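Below is a filled-in request sheet from our internal design queue. Each sheet records the structural input a requester submitted and the sequence that came back. We keep these sheets so that new team members can see what a complete request looks like end to end.

REQUESTER: design group, bay 2
PRIORITY: normal
MODE: inverse folding
CHAIN LENGTH: 195
BACKBONE (tokenized):
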């Protein structure tokens, strides 16, 4: 007679996507902005890290830009003033070349200051930790007052998408090998292609 072979396997449900929220800024956690175990949306603020040092760096970069722009304005004025003078041989070509070099240096300093402002703004933004994906967030792994680090990537929380789940079953390789051998020898048969 035909007998159905049943096997009970232990399994676990796994989320389709999982994201570990880590610190991208170094500082002290000031606030937790979510409820543990709740559903969070992608981009939702989760933690506030002290951003005072990053704001200060941004202000320093903005001051450097103002200085570089003032230097560039002076260099541009010097070049404009020296151009007719060098053509009239009223100043040396060397002085005019030095003014052009100073103008190029000032222009490069403006570009460098603008890049420093962009970097400082990015770092200010990193102090607000947001959800990388939507899903259910677990327990906060840090509390207010904890020092987190960008260099070590301090874990802050874990978000799991559970709209659909994977079922992870485990069976020993020896058992699977025996079943395959029994099917190959004809001792066992599959029913409608099911193993």
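RETURNED SEQUENCE:
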């Amino acid at each position: 007679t035909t007998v159905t072979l049943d096997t009970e396997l232990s399994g676990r449900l796994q989320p389709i996507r999982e994201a570990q929220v880590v610190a991208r800024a170094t500082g002290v956690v000031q606030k937790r902005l979510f409820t543990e175990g709740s559903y969070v949306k992608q981009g939702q603020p989760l933690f506030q890290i002290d951003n005072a040092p990053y704001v200060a760096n941004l202000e320093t970069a903005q001051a450097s830009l103002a200085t570089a722009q003032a230097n560039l304005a002076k260099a541009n004025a010097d070049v404009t003033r020296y151009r007719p003078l060098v053509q009239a041989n009223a100043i040396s070509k060397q002085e005019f070349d030095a003014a052009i070099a100073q103008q190029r240096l000032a222009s490069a300093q403006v570009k460098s200051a603008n890049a420093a402002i962009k970097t400082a703004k990015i770092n200010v933004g990193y102090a607000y930790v947001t959800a990388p994906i939507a899903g259910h967030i677990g327990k906060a792994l840090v509390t207010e007052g904890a020092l987190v680090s960008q260099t070590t990537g301090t874990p802050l929380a874990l978000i799991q998408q559970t709209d659909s789940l994977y079922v992870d079953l485990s069976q020993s390789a020896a058992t699977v090998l025996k079943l395959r051998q029994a099917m190959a020898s004809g001792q066992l048969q599959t029913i409608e292609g099911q193993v």
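SHEET NOTES:
- The longest strand covers residues 155-169.
- The chain has three helices and eight strands.
FILED BY: M.R.
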